[in-house]
Design a protein that fits this description.
The protein is an all-alpha fold. It has two domains: 55 residues, no CATH class; 168 residues, no CATH class. The protein is built from twelve helices and two strands; from the N terminus they run ββαααααααααααα. Strands 1-2 form a two-stranded antiparallel sheet. Helix 5 runs antiparallel to helix 6 and helix 6 crosses helix 10. It is elongated, with a radius of gyration of 46 Å. The termini are far apart.
Length: 300
């Protein structure tokens, strides 16, 4: 710290430890200048207190804060400003160009990671409903795989296969390489409209009491309706699925009574005629046949 003392000819600077050290807290008038006057300090008052000195110099700076200690997990994580923002499908539909492609890819990758965790959990709960699983002799995939396919295709916003069939000039295999990764394909890997109808039909046959399974059904049907938004006549069960989805959202159960056949019942089938067997009398000897029918005797 340096101290200032006023003299007749010039201002002298006294450093700590010097022989002509002045009293602490003294400040020369030449240093104060206009600053002291603006602070309301009189010029004749040359000896200032520490409070007055602080008023001239301003408040003391706060000591530097210690550096934040980051954990090992935080060190390996990507900073939040570099993490891509996950948008909803409605927000993605409003984008265009490269921004839309990147946002759709980020959503597809996020749903893929989510399904890796969700499907094994749901598979354990589906074991309580063995009727939902398929028979090995049938072509129909498992119920839970049907829902996974619908959610996956909708997350990547794949083009329905119905549009690929409309292009008669080009073969379906020429439109895209089916051996390429799923993320790079253009079209879906199944007919979502028919698959969603089969998924809903099988769901209506059971009382699914698990909230996770009910939420899964709602999510699958929502994805199917969004995926088939441009399929009008081709999506034959679209209205039926939409009604069923609204009922599920309102808390109704998943089970539905099978519809009764319309019209009058047909005539009752006639009972089959009883066939009477002759037993030993079924064989007629030649003598008996000649007696009953003489002209039929081959030996006459």
């Amino acid at each position: 710290m340096q101290f200032y003392e006023e003299s007749d000819d010039q201002t002298q600077i006294h450093k700590p430890g010097s022989e002509d050290r002045g009293p602490p807290g003294t400040v020369a008038k030449t240093e104060i200048g206009s600053t002291a006057a603006s602070r309301g300090i009189k010029e004749e008052n040359m000896i200032l207190t520490q409070e007055q000195i602080d008023r001239i110099r301003g408040p003391k700076r706060r000591p530097g804060l210690p550096p934040k200690i980051r954990t090992e997990e935080q060190e390996t994580q990507m900073p939040k400003k570099y993490i891509p923002k996950l948008l909803s499908q409605e927000q993605i539909d409003k984008l265009k160009g490269r921004a839309k492609e990147n946002a759709q890819r980020n959503r597809g990758l996020a749903v893929e990671e989510e399904l890796k965790t969700l499907i094994p959990i749901l598979a354990k709960e589906v074991k309580n409903f063995p009727e939902l699983e398929y028979n090995e002799s049938c072509i129909v995939p498992p119920w839970i795989d049907e829902g996974r396919q619908i959610i996956r295709n909708a997350a990547w916003a794949k083009t329905p296969l119905d549009f690929a069939e409309e292009d008669e000039d080009e073969d379906e295999d020429e439109l895209q390489n089916w051996s390429s990764p799923f993320a790079e394909r253009i079209f879906a890997d199944c007919f979502i409209d028919s698959l969603a109808g089969e998924f809903a039909r099988r769901t209506k046959q059971h009382h699914l009491t698990s909230p996770d399974l009910v939420s899964f059904v709602v999510r699958v049907l929502e994805a199917a309706l969004w995926f088939g938004r441009d399929l009008h006549a081709a999506f034959q069960q679209k209205e039926e699925i939409a009604v069923y989805l609204d009922e599920l959202r309102n808390g109704s159960g998943t089970f539905r009574e099978p519809p009764k056949p319309k019209g009058r019942p047909g005539p009752k089938p006639r009972p089959a005629a009883v066939v009477e067997h002759a037993g030993p009398n079924a064989y007629i000897s030649p003598e008996e046949a000649a007696r009953v029918i003489p002209e039929a005797n081959p030996w006459a």
